[in-house]
Structure formats: C-alpha cells, structure tokens
Design brief:
The protein is of the alpha+beta class. The protein folds into 2 domains: 155 residues, Spore Coat Polysaccharide Biosynthesis Protein SpsA, Chain A (Alpha-Beta Complex); 84 residues, no CATH class. The protein is 40% helix and 17% strand. The chain is built from 9 helices and 8 strands. Strands 1, 2, 3, 4, 5, 6, 7 and 8 form an 8-stranded mixed β-sheet that branches. α3 runs antiparallel to α6, α7 runs antiparallel to α8 and α7 crosses α9.
Length: 247
C-alpha cells in the first residue's frame, strides 16, 4: 500500500524505489536517466547490485545480463526471458520503472508480503514497454540473517513461485508459443530448485517433501527439471533477446 500511495503522489515520470537499509552508488540515478533517455520505449530499467552484510562488506554481486554494458529487451521478448530466468530484473534496489507503466499495471500487490511482490510488479509493468539493463553495479542491498521473507516455509515459497510462473506463462508472446516448456515441467523445475535450496540449508525434511512429492514421481530425477535448472545457470545465453544501447 505504501508503494502504491507513494507512486500516486509522485510527480516524476520515473520512480526509483529503495528500502531504508539499501543504498545506491552516487552515479546510479545519472546512469539510469542516461540509459532511459536513449530508449524512450522503456518502462523498466535494472542494474547489477551488490549484496552486503550489515557492516557493509560485500557478499556477492548479481550476474550481468548479456554482454553489452547497456542493452534493451523488446517488450514481446521480456516475458519469455523472465519465464526461463534469462531476464532477472532483481530487487527494488536494482529497478526503476515508468510511473505510467506502474499505474497501468494496477499497482503493487501488497498481499504477497515481501514474497515475490517485487517480481510480480515487474511482470505487470513489462506489459507496457521495453526493458533496459545496465551491466554496472549501481545498487547495494543489505542482507539480514533474520529477514522476514526468510521465515516463510519452503512450501509457501514454492506455492508463490509457481503462481508467479503461471502469470508470466500467460503473458509470453505468441512468437514463443512453440518453444515453451509445459507448465508441469516448470513446476518440476521449481520443486527441484527449492528442494536443493532446502537441502543446502540443512532442512532435510523440507527437501525430501519437495523433491519427492509422490512416491512414484521423484522430481529429483526429472530430466526436464534439471535442464531448466542448468539453463538458469547460463543467464545471458540467448543473445537474440538483447539489443545494444549506445555507450
């Protein structure tokens, strides 16, 4: 609700969200404004970000998208890229969006309670124009060990993630319809993904519930699930999606 109210009151053409414990590089707004000016059809812009601990020490940096320093993705290609996780917009710290695009999308769904609520908004906004990516680290996101969204069960995260994929699936352009995995294949991939996350965190019961939902249908051995998981590791593997902006 706070996001919706803030955007409603804003007077600018573009909105840059920022949580109170995250921060931006000094040149972030300038870099985004310059890129947006080069491509007026854009409604959403994202950059790389660093994850830092509460002392400001860098933990990791998000991967770049494609190879050009600045690029755009045409509207008809965005949801296909999002479905196969080749178009990772990231968290609010990384993203700016068009005010008109946001309002046209229906606004922020606060019912998701920090569980994919940002991605849900990017999905909706991306219906109304192109996307820009800047392959520079221009934002810093603070990681808290006891963060609220870490308290959701793996089953709840899986359920919401499936819902998000279904929304994206319905918006994929007709030009990609013959190339899409089936929905059950995506669900198998998501079960594998969250099962492995649970396993990595030592939650063995949760991992078993996710990887083996049915005795005779072990997701852990689904070839298509592994194929999608491996595809996720190769972000930027679809050069035809990316169009270079002038440097």
């Amino acid at each position: 609700k706070a996001v919706n109210k803030g955007v409603e009151l804003a007077s600018g053409d573009w909105i840059k969200l920022l949580d109170d414990d995250d921060y931006l590089a000094r040149n972030c707004i300038e870099e985004m404004a310059n890129a947006i000016a080069l491509h007026p059809k854009a409604v959403i812009c994202s950059c790389q970000s660093a994850q830092v601990d509460t002392l400001g020490a860098e933990l990791s940096v998000t991967r770049q998208v494609g190879s050009p320093q600045r690029l755009y993705i045409a509207q008809e290609d965005i949801h296909y890229g999002m479905l196969l996780e080749m178009v990772p917009f990231g968290t609010p710290a990384q993203v700016a969006f068009s005010r008109d695009g946001f309002l046209s999308s229906g606004g922020w769904d606060s019912s998701l309670d920090t569980n994919f609520d940002d991605i849900d908004s990017w999905i909706q906004i991306a219906q109304f124009g192109d996307a820009i990516f800047i392959n520079k680290c221009l934002a810093y996101r603070t990681i808290w060990s006891g963060a609220y969204n870490h308290k959701f069960s793996f089953q709840k995260r899986l359920k919401t993630h499936i819902s998000i994929k279904e929304k994206i699936y319905a918006l994929v352009s007709e030009k990609y319809q013959g190339q899409l995995p089936l929905l059950w294949e995506l669900v198998a991939y998501l079960r594998l993904h969250w099962g492995l996350v649970a396993l990595k965190r030592g939650k063995l019961i949760s991992a078993a519930e996710l990887l083996f939902p049915e005795c005779f249908s072990p997701i852990a051995f689904s070839p298509i699930a592994w194929k999608l998981l491996l595809l996720r590791k190769t972000l930027g593997g679809e050069p035809s999606l990316y169009h270079k902006l002038p440097v």
